[in-house]
């Protein structure tokens, strides 16, 4: 995965992603791939697969927080806030306080 992300083509990276979903824990694999794409600045690939990941794991706060971190780090404050609002519709209410606190910390960290 790492070699494909650093040196491979977009098609190869997306094929690796699809193949990896078949053979790994889907949520953990998606989170790992998201971090890999962010670290290697593969923003186009992340944007391509983002909606698919959000559909599959729409009630998982970790997925939303990784993407909020990504947007706020890039200075896309509005996109991060929109994603937070979207997450509050799907993430269980008992996890909302933790999500809001983490998002607030991210805003402070990146000066958003």
Automatic annotation (TrEMBL):
<dbReference type="GO" id="GO:0006364">
    <property type="term" value="P:rRNA processing"/>
</dbReference>
<dbReference type="GO" id="GO:0032040">
    <property type="term" value="C:small-subunit processome"/>
</dbReference>
<dbReference type="GO" id="GO:0003723">
    <property type="term" value="F:RNA binding"/>
</dbReference>
<dbReference type="InterPro" id="IPR045209">
    <property type="entry name" value="Rrp5"/>
</dbReference>
<dbReference type="InterPro" id="IPR011990">
    <property type="entry name" value="TPR-like_helical_dom_sf"/>
</dbReference>
<protein>
    <recommendedName>
        <fullName>Regulator of microtubule dynamics protein 1</fullName>
    </recommendedName>
</protein>
């Amino acid at each position: 995965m790492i070699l494909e992300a650093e040196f491979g083509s977009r098609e190869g990276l997306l094929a690796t992603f699809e193949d990896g979903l078949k053979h790994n824990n889907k949520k953990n694999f998606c989170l790992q791939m998201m971090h890999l794409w962010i670290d290697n600045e593969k923003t186009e690939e992340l944007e391509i697969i983002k909606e698919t990941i959000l559909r599959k794991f729409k009630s998982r706060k970790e997925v939303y927080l990784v993407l909020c971190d990504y947007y706020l780090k890039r200075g896309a404050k509005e996109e991060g806030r929109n994603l937070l609002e979207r997450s509050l519709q799907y993430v269980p209410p008992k996890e909302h306080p933790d999500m809001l606190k983490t998002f607030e910390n991210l805003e402070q960290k990146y000066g958003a």
